[in-house]
C-alpha cells in the first residue's frame, strides 16, 4: 500500500545545513510536498515539487527528488533557531488524498 | 489575509458531551478536508468535501462523527458523546482542485475530553 517514511528526529547546529529525508511508495504521485508545523500550530506549506522535476530551490530551501529510488529530501541552508519545528513530507496519492509521513522533528543546537 | 479559519481554537469538555468545530476555508477553494492529529503523528484523514458534497469519509471514523458543508462554504465537524480517545487536534484544510493542488491549513481546534 501507499506509505511515506521519515526519520523522527534531526539535530543540527545553528548555521549548518539541515537535510530531512523522506521515502514514498506511490510511483504515480504527481506532487510531493513539505509542510512545517510549529508547536501548537497548524501545518504551513513550505514548498512542493512536481514529479517531472529533480530539484527545486526557493531561497534557503532546496528540494531534491529521486524518482527511481522514490526519495525526497529537503535541505535548509544556514539553519536558524526559527527553523525548529516538525517537518512533514506528503505525497499526492492516486485517489487525490495526501499521504503523510509521521514528521521529522528538527532540533537546533546553539 | 483571509486564510483558513477554525474555531474554537481550544475546547475542553466532559466525556459524553457533544462538541462542534467550525472551519471557514479560503473563499475560492472548492475542496475542504478535515484531519485529526495526535501528538507525534502526521495528520489522519477524516473526510472531505467537494463544494457541498461529502465525497469520502474515513472508514476509521465512528458514527459519532459527522461533518457538513451546507452551502459549499464553511464546514462544521460534530462529535457526539465524546470519549477520551477523541482528544486531539482537529485540522481543517482547503484547496482548489487544479494546478499544484496545495492544501492550506487552519490553525486547528484542540479538543480535550476529561
What would you note in describing this structure?
- The complex is a heterodimer of chains A (110) and B (114).
- Chain A is 0% helix and 57% strand.
- By secondary structure, chain A is mostly beta strands.
- In chain A, the strands form two sheets. In chain A, strands 2, 4, 5, 9, 10 and 11 form a six-stranded mixed beta sheet that branches. In chain A, strands 1-3-8-7-6 form a five-stranded antiparallel beta sheet, with no helix packed on it.
- In chain A, strand 4 (31-37) and strand 5 (43-50) form a beta hairpin.
- Chain B is mostly beta strands.
- Helices cover 0% and strands 49% of the residues of chain B.
- Chain B has strands at 5-7, 10-13, 19-24, 31-37, 44-50, 53-57, 65-68, 75-79, 88-95, 104-105, 109-113.
- In chain B, strands 2, 4, 5, 6, 9, 10 and 11 form a seven-stranded mixed beta sheet that branches.
- Chain B is globular, with a radius of gyration of 13 Å.
- Chain A binds chain B through residues 4, 31, 33, 35, 40-45, 48, 50, 88, 90, 92, 96-98, 100-103, and chain B through 4, 6, 40-43, 45, 56, 91, 93, 97, 100-108, 110.
Keywords summarizing the entry:
heterodimer, A: 110 residues, mainly beta, six-stranded mixed β-sheet, five-stranded antiparallel β-sheet, 11 strands, B: 114 residues, seven-stranded mixed β-sheet, four-stranded antiparallel β-sheet, globular
Mean pLDDT of chain B: 92
User: Nearest-angstrom radius of gyration of chain A?
Assistant: 13 Å
What percentage of the residues of chain B does DSSP assign to strands (E)?
over 45%
Helix content of chain A: under 10%
Strand composition percent of chain A: over 45%
User: Quick one: overall form of chain B?
Assistant: globular
Structural class of chain B: mainly beta
Largest interface: A-B, 22 and 21 residues
- Helical element count of chain B? 0
Amino acid at each position: 500500500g501507499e506509505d511515506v517514511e521519515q526519520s523522527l528526529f534531526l539535530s543540527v547546529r545553528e548555521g549548518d545545513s539541515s537535510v530531512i529525508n523522506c521515502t514514498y511508495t506511490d510511483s504515480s504521485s504527481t506532487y510531493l510536498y513539505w509542510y512545517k508545523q510549529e508547536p501548537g500550530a497548524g501545518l504551513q506549506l513550505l514548498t512542493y515539487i512536481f514529479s517531472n522535476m529533480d530539484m527545486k530551490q526557493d531561497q534557503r530551501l532546496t528540494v531534491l527528488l529521486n524518482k527511481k529510488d522514490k526519495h525526497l529530501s529537503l535541505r535548509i541552508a544556514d539553519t536558524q533557531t526559527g527553523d525548529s519545528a516538525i517537518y512533514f513530507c506528503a505525497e499526492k496519492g492516486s485517489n487525490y488524498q495526501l499521504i503523510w509521513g509521521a514528521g521529522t522533528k528538527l532540533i537546533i543546537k546553539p | 489575509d483571509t486564510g483558513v479559519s477554525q474555531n474554537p481554537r481550544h475546547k475542553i469538555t466532559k466525556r459524553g458531551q457533544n462538541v462542534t468545530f467550525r472551519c471557514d476555508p479560503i473563499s475560492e477553494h472548492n475542496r475542504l478536508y478535515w484531519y485529526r492529529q495526535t501528538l507525534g503523528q502526521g495528520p489522519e484523514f477524516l473526510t472531505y468535501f467537494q463544494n457541498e458534497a461529502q465525497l469520502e469519509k474515513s472508514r476509521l471514523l465512528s458514527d459519532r462523527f459527522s461533518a457538513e458543508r451546507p452551502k459549499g462554504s464553511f464546514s462544521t465537524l460534530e462529535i457526539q458523546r465524546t470519549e477520551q480517545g477523541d482528544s486531539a487536534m482537529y485540522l481543517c484544510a482547503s484547496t482548489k482542485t487544479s494546478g499544484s493542488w496545495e492544501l492550506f491549513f487552519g490553525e486547528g481546534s484542540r479538543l480535550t475530553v476529561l
